[in-house]
Design a protein that fits this description.
Helices cover 12% and strands 42% of the residues. By secondary structure, it is mainly β. Strand 2 (24-31) and strand 3 (34-41) form a beta hairpin. The protein starts with 5 loop residues before the first strand and ends in a 23-residue tail after the last strand. 11% of the residues are buried.
Length: 84
Amino acid sequence: MTRRALEWTTVDRATLAEHLQAARIDRSQAVGATSLYHCRSAGGETVAIALPDGSGLIVGLTPPAAPRFERRKKPAGDGPLAAK
């Protein structure tokens, strides 16, 4: 299992609105003057938070890391440069 970390981005009201329009909102909840949105899009799941001051926060997971490439040692004498 690959570990993925959380990442967050502080955004202005217009960017938060664009994010909410582009995503499918699964759930939303207001907590005082703050609104939380659980979103899904082609990029994955995010939580968008609209703060009372007009700014916002988008929280998501970092993209999965590419699989590690490992070189395998070939047995001696194998390959195009081997002495014949």
